[in-house]
Amino acid sequence: MAKRADIGSKRLISLAPNAWVQWVTGNPQVRASQLLDAEFQWISRESDVILKASSPEHQEFLILNELQLRYDQNMPQRMRNYVALAEEKYNLSAYPVLINILPPPSTVTIVDCYDKEFMGLKARQDYRVINLWEVDAELVLEQPLPPLFPFVPILKGGGSESKLRSAVQALRADQTLNQLEPLLAFFASFVLEIPLIQQIMRWDMTVLRESPWYQEILQEGVAQGIEQGIQQERRGSLERILKLRFSEIPVEISVRIQALTLEQLEELMATALTVNSLDEFSEHLPN
Fold this sequence. Notes:
- By secondary structure, this protein is of the alpha/beta class.
- The chain contains 13 helices and 7 strands.
- Mean pLDDT is 85; it is low at 1-5.
- Helices cover 45% and strands 18% of the residues.
- The strands form 2 sheets. Strands 1-2-3-4-7 form a 5-stranded mixed sheet, with helices on both faces. It has a two-stranded antiparallel ribbon with strand order 5-6.
- Strand 5 (113-118) and strand 6 (121-126) form a beta hairpin.
């Protein structure tokens, strides 16, 4: 059974908080000191991460990180509320940053401020916007910036086999990063063929499903398509193993293989390599 892993925003940022705060602020003198509670009375989401930071120029302040799978047009209002609640709770000035992971439809315009006037009164909240598809993959790997390693395939210039291999190597070089490999595989599936990804790296769907981004994509129907593609590839691999070992596969076994879930298929791969006959393999198939 797969080991439980947290591959949400807080986990990613905590991997290298100083590198992260310097990147989002563009200031090499900023240092992170503490991850703070991002839960408020009415708002609590896994994509919100608050860091207490400091710099010689600004002393202590908050960095509010909002990681969004896709930008939505309610974000300016949300960022305004986020800043107000955080500043009230911690009594420190806030530097808000919105990080968009995947590009929105071409009809959507990304804005970097909340700006509203009502009855002659104005309200405004600026925030920094970072679009990951505009971030150079090579710089992320060279810097390095570990929290962004899982996103390398969807970064600028990152959608190639060589960049994926470089990202995998970077994750495997550090024991604290190895649980991020399923997330890297997931984002690679947006730009590369699934069989190629599976050839290069492991793909643990049990771990991946714990990611808040996977759950969000699931609602859009994209994740189902990716998972179905993996499932079909696993069926083909299982049948190829059986054919190599026992020649033809009876129709009855083939039909039962078609009904297996992804988890069942993955469990039966090892079984197919160790059983002595198709009859023995059949005994391991779910009823």
